[in-house]
């Protein structure tokens, strides 16, 4: 594994939409977009020994992504998610459990000089992948939590543990409101971000707000950008693209507001396509 690689740990799967299936999974989407932007990426995941798994590996190879850290599971099927597209602006998901990515084992070879680890709450829903994640968190520099709350696949206990073990947190309005309700915090985005930063000692928090743009709290300084007006095909993977754009800019040590602008532009661009891993021209982005 290349040094200074961004490690993406967790789910890779097929989104089952009306009439078609598209490759997806939050961390796989993030890995795809990071790679497309030119960042060295390693995806640690697991697929079944089945046709869907082979298709995913072939797709990733075709994208140019390394597949050497993707494990093959002989007992569990490749992950699938049934997407309810009745409202393309707010897609709902039925995430099948258990599947192969619930049983990710610790990789046999892992460079210790890796600056970023991207992970989400779905990887804690089963003990095997959860244990692997805990080991990985001890061997990286910057721990990036894309919280990605999907009921009923999380508990407050595990979410609190994840919040205690991240350096960068990305979440959306609905997720922030839910977490605020756990602690009786005023339903204000700014107050919610400040509360999370203080309670869990999180240095950097990014809040995505869909058409209303995004906010960033870093070192007690709040930054905001407006939304980008686009014709939405669906919102699958747009938040993952946002995070990839943000991390790309963050790795280049760009100013906080620039990180937000790049992230916002990529998230909006991906929303104009169907699925989480579309092909697009990066030259249209403000990189």
Number of helices: 8
Strand order of the largest sheet: 5-4-1-8-9-10-11-12-13
Radius of gyration: 17 Å
- At CATH level 2, the architecture is 3-Layer(aba) Sandwich
Structural class call reads: alpha/beta
Shape: globular
**CATH H level: which superfamily?**
Ribokinase
> What share of the residues lie within helices?
25-40%
| CATH class label | Alpha Beta
- Number of domains as seen in the coordinates: 1
- Element order: H for helix, E for strand: EEEHEHEEEEHEHEHHEEEHH
- Chain-averaged pLDDT: 93
Q: Spans of 5+ residues with little confidence (pLDDT < 50)? A: none
Distance between the termini: 26 Å
Number of strand elements: 13
Kindly estimate the percentage of residues that lie in beta strands according to DSSP.
Answer: 15-25%
Instruction: Kindly identify the CATH topology.
Output: UDP-N-acetylmuramoyl-L-alanine:D-glutamate ligase
Largest sheet: 9 strands, mixed
